[in-house]
Design goal:
single chain, about 70% helix, 48 helices
Length: about 1100
């Protein structure tokens, strides 16, 4: 069996083994591991001189896994065999590979854990007896001794491992056993090991170094749960101090630093902890070493940084957790403060390290130090001036600011590195915030001096070329300074911020950066972006006349900024990241400041931007699936997100909108129109060329995408005009241009109606035109009505070509027109003719697509379409246009169709998404309130007429709605009372049918507020002359109809029906829902 196991292990570990045989070998060794007796042949393998290291390692693995499950007698037998194996290694003076030594040590450690309390209590002493006979050490045995102790700590003392209560209780007993039986011997022999193996008498120096290092690790591990005084003697400290300063052994130095960390971390009262810190005197010792953290090994520097941080944190904890009496003691406080002061030079050393990972190690101390000072900022009884003084805070502030600088080997061009460094910067900024709170005057002086040094000290120096990192740091600190003001870190009254001295100083420095830009601003992406981001953050400086800087002409400053934007430093940068971001920042800056400069300046800015208004791109990849062999048909249905192109179209749109904004700033009507025509004409020409290509069957995907881009670009130029009002320009002239734009757009639509991306782009343009013309309230609406009529007609004629998302977008646009139509007769007439055919097409689309649903995506599309159309139906009522339903016979017929459709959705609640059911009930409620009297009673509906009637209202709408309420509110939950516990059913169905019933009860009357039963405040209630509000009360006729239906159709007792109606009209929606639920639960 032993031979088979060895063969299987070798095959399993060999990379050249046959895969089939290797699989068999793996299966075999897995069986050995899981078998009850597999550990026995593994023990025998350990005794074989011919066994390979792989076989021995596997054998020890099997033994370790099986050991906890063995009987006490089996454990004793196993122990004897393991000790025999260990003794043979010792007698042969055989140094096994480290992984085998660790495996055997783990076996010994597990024997301790699972045997000490029941069958074998002397393992530690027995291993020690092999290592040390009282006068001499055996190297092999000593190595296993300290390794075994490390395993024991990992198993029972490592606080990083979470254990259940039962295991923890057992481990506590094992710790007690060590404290009682082995602690004195262990601590004594550790000292002797360190003395012996650091002497020159050692033969095997490599093994000796391992023994020393593992012994130091043992000291650090066990110190948390053994008597600490046993290792706090002069000889121990002498060894550890020696190792800590040992420059030639980096590994030992780092291990020793970690051990001191564990010693410092030992739990004890604050006074005892202060005694320990003072006794160890680590701050003084480390300062004597004159550490240069950048010159020593990374691991050593990391370990020392952790140690310095631990010294500081423990010292702060002493002050934070001590008793009031201790804190009041001048000697106690002085000693604790001195230990904090002692490590500050070391903190600054590691904070300035070139590796951020090392610097981060001292962040916790800095954070806790500043927190301690903030906690005691108003404490006048305790003097902490020793650690809270100008010298410390000034030095700390300067070191924090210097840490904000990019490293010398960082070119600032890697996004991931920049993101990581910005996370560090944000933490450092929090430290600066704390210092500002502690000493505002000092912090601001340091910050301002640093900004002046980094940005302005080299101005005028002939031939000096400042480092980009220094300039970037200056801009970053200036940005921090501005953010500090914006976030009011100083806690100034809000009315005082803009008039404060710090704010005035910032404005001075901002102006100085702008005026000295040619000498300060180096052509580096981070500097360029920081500069423009800073300008945008403080756009109010440029358009607020109350903000003035002595000796500065703000118009000149603004012109300087605009020129910098329109330069190679900004929108024409050779760096794509800077260029694209600058397009957005320039757009935002122009939009927020609307710069008041002369027409000539504006025209020059626009001329400068003209080269950016063309599209020079290539299609890099097109992942749209080809649905047809016809190349042109393949272009009909494109997803732009699946087309990758060169350039950045989305960013470029900001330039087009910027141009539109700038055109509106031209004061001359003729000048404005000329510029607009000159900007638009190349787009018109390109679109005409595309139409020609289409007619000659030469259109390719690049041409089609270009048409899309020009249309969207045109729409973005128009976006710049959206904030204008009619009195700001000559209406006739701008109308002529807008008419020309609309003609180009509509002609393009007619020619490209088959292409979805063109339809989407044109709707975007139409919406822009609609907003502009509506905003300006022209006396004649002919142009707007002409545009809407042509666009809607074209869409309706080609409705079957529209994708679901296009239909939803079109519905949303029509809903937008509803709002305007409540006061505009021409729009009302247009919508009255559109309503029936549009809804007919939408409902047909919904039914057709529902029958074709094959996946979750298409199902979701249908749901989105249903939600959109029902939102539009609700908008009709909300916008006071219920009269549309009665405007003509087609609309009346569609009203009947809508009611039946909503009833169908509602009754089919089990097979319909609950959100659709909820909306359908809400639509019925709105129709009942708006048309429940058979005529339009809404006083805000400007087109209502008593001559227009809905004759079937009672039987079709009112009665069916009452039946629906009874069905969904009473009958369905009575048959399945678990539905009443379903929050989704209650909130989407039960509550809505209660509101529907309340709406029926208040037909012809003001619907009460759903929460208070008070009359709802109408949106126009302040204008009492505009309309006469509906009366307050309820409709007795419909209330009687509700009662009769409950009695006649559902067998309600007349008293109960009357009670229900009374509750309906006298309680809020939710209270009535509770009544209804209680009613159902009783029957």
């Amino acid at each position: 069996m032993e031979e088979q196991i060895q063969q299987a292990v070798e095959i399993a570990n060999s990379p050249s083994s046959d895969p089939v045989i290797k699989e068999q070998a793996l299966s075999f060794v897995s069986q050995i591991k899981s078998s009850t007796n597999g550990w026995q042949p593994c023990l025998k393998i350990l005794q074989l001189d011919t066994a390979s290291t792989n076989s021995k390692f596997f054998a020890l693995q099997v033994i370790c896994e099986r050991l906890p499950l063995l009987s006490d007698s089996e454990k004793i037998s196993l122990k004897d065999m393991i000790f025999n194996y260990l003794s043979s290694l010792i007698s042969q003076n055989k140094v096994e590979p480290i992984f085998l030594r660790n495996a055997l040590s783990k076996t010994l450690g597990l024997l301790f854990v699972h045997c000490t309390l029941n069958c074998y209590a002397t393992l530690v002493k027995d291993v020690l007896s092999l290592a040390y006979n009282g006068s001499t050490f055996n190297d092999i045995a000593t190595d296993y001794y300290v390794r075994t102790l490390s395993v024991i700590h990992q198993e029972i003392g490592d606080q990083m491992i979470t254990r259940d209560n039962r295991s923890q209780d057992q481990h506590n007993l094992l710790k007690d056993s060590i404290r009682a039986n082995d602690m004195l011997d262990m601590t004594s022999v550790w000292k002797k090991i360190l003395g012996h193996y650091t002497s020159d008498a050692v033969v095997n120096r490599s093994l000796a170094d391992e023994i020393i290092n593992n012994t130091i690790i043992c000291i650090g591990s066990f110190v948390s749960w053994i008597e600490i005084n046993l290792i706090l003697d002069e000889q121990y400290m002498s060894f550890l101090y020696q190792f800590l300063g040992e420059g030639t052994n980096a590994k030992r130095r780092a291990i020793t630093a970690n051990t001191f960390n564990e010693i410092l971390h030992k739990k004890m009262p604050p006074s005892k902890k202060l005694e320990l810190i003072n006794f160890l005197n680590l701050g003084g010792i480390l300062n004597q070493l004159n550490i240069n953290s950048n010159a020593i090994e990374f691991d050593v520097s990391m370990a020392l940084a952790k140690l310095v941080n631990q010294i500081g944190e423990e010292s702060i904890t002493v002050l934070d957790k001590c008793s009031p009496a201790e804190l009041g003691s001048a000697d106690f406080r002085s000693l604790a403060c001195s230990k904090i002061l002692e490590i500050f030079p070391l903190i600054f050393e590691f904070l300035s390290n070139e590796f951020d990972d090392i610097s981060l190690e001292v962040f916790p101390f800095i954070s806790n130090f500043l927190l301690l000072l903030k906690k005691n900022i108003t404490n006048e009884t305790i003097d902490l001036s020793a650690i809270n003084n100008d010298e410390i805070l000034t030095t700390l502030s300067k070191n924090i600011i210097l840490k904000l600088k990019f490293d010398e080997d960082d070119d600032g061009d890697d996004d991931d590195t920049i993101e990581q460094f910005n996370e560090i910067r944000s933490k450092l900024s929090v430290f600066l915030d704390s210092i500002v709170l502690l000493n505002e005057t000092l912090a601001l002086e340091v910050i301002i001096n640093c900004i002046n040094e980094f940005l302005f000290s080299k101005i005028g120096d002939a031939g000096s070329q400042p480092d980009w990192r220094t300039i970037e740091l200056g801009l970053y600190v200036l940005t921090y300074y501005s953010d500090m003001l914006r976030n009011n870190v100083m806690n100034l009254p809000k009315t005082m911020i803009n008039n404060s001295r710090p704010y005035f100083v910032f404005n001075e420095m901002l102006c100085k950066v702008i005026t000295s830009s040619t000498q300060i601003l180096i052509n580096h992406p981070l500097i360029q972006l920081s500069f423009f981001e800073l300008l945008l953050k403080h756009y109010t400086f440029f358009n607020n006349n109350n903000i003035q800087v002595e000796g500065v002409n703000k118009e000149d400053i603004l012109l300087k900024v605009l020129n910098i934007f329109i330069s190679n430093f900004g929108v024409f940068s050779e760096n794509d990241k800077v260029k694209y971001r600058s397009w957005y920042l320039f757009h935002r800056f122009v939009k927020m400041t609307r710069p008041k400069v002369g027409d000539f300046i504006i025209e020059e800015l626009i001329k400068s931007l003209l080269p950016l208004l063309s599209f020079d791109f290539q299609i890099v990849s097109n992942k749209n699936k080809l649905l047809s062999n016809d190349p042109s048909a393949a272009l009909f249905d494109l997803d732009m997100t699946l087309i990758e192109e060169s350039g950045s179209f989305e960013s470029q749109l900001h330039v087009f909108e910027s141009v539109g904004l700038l055109i509106t700033l031209v004061s001359s009507d003729d000048g404005r129109i000329n510029i607009l025509e000159n900007v638009l004409q190349p787009m018109f020409t390109s679109l005409e060329a595309a139409i020609t290509k289409l007619s000659s069957s030469q259109l390719e995907i690049v041409g089609l995408v270009q048409v899309h881009h020009y249309l969207i670009a045109m729409g973005n130029i128009l976006k710049g005009f959206e904030s204008l009002r009619g009195q700001q320009f000559d209406q006739s002239k701008i109308l002529n241009v807008l008419n020309q734009v609309s003609q180009v757009i509509l002609i393009t639509l007619e020619n490209f109606i088959d292409f979805n991306i063109i339809r989407e782009a044109i709707q975007f343009c139409i919406v822009r035109l609609y907003i502009i013309l509506n905003n300006n309230n022209h006396s004649e609406k002919e142009l707007l009505q002409s545009i809407l009529s042509k666009f809607i007609s074209c869409i309706m004629l080609n409705f079957e070509k529209l994708k679901v998302l296009e239909i939803i977008s079109f519905i949303n646009f029509v809903s937008q027109i509803f709002y305007q139509s409540s006061t505009d007769e021409s729009s009302y007439i247009l919508l009255s003719s559109l309503l029936a055919p549009l809804l007919s097409k939408i409902f047909m689309k919904v039914e057709n697509d529902k029958n074709k649903v094959t996946d979750e995506f298409s199902k979701q599309e249908v749901l989105d379409l249903q939600r959109s159309v029902m939102s539009m139906l609700i908008a009709i009522s909300n916008d006071h246009l219920n009269s549309l339903w009665l405007a003509n016979e087609d609309n009346k017929a569609m009203l009947i169709n809508v009611i039946n459709t909503m009833l169908s959705y509602s009754y089919n609640h089990q097979g319909t998404d609950l959100s659709i059911v909820k909306l359908s009930i809400l639509v019925l409620n709105m129709l009942c309130q708006g048309l429940g009297s058979g005529i339009v009673v809404d006083p805000q509906d400007n087109f209502r007429s008593d001559n227009n009637k809905f004759e079937q209202v009672n039987e079709l709408l009112i009665n069916n709605s009452i039946l629906l309420v009874a069905e969904l509110g009473l009958k369905v939950p009575a048959a399945n009372k678990n539905l009443l516990k379903d929050a989704q059913f209650r909130n989407n169905i039960t509550l809505e049918v209660c509101r529907l019933l309340k709406g029926i009860a208040h037909i012809g009357f003001e619907y009460p507020d759903s929460n208070t039963l008070q009359k709802k405040k109408s949106e126009n209630a302040t204008d009492s002359n505009k309309f006469t509000p509906l009366p307050v009360g309820f409709n007795e006729e419909t209330c009687q109809q509700i009662s009769n239906t409950l009695v006649g159709n559902f067998g309600f007792p007349s008293e109960l029906a009357a009670q229900l109606v009374q509750t309906l009209v006298s309680t809020t929606d939710r209270n009535f829902m509770k009544y209804l639920i209680d009613l159902v639960e009783k029957f």
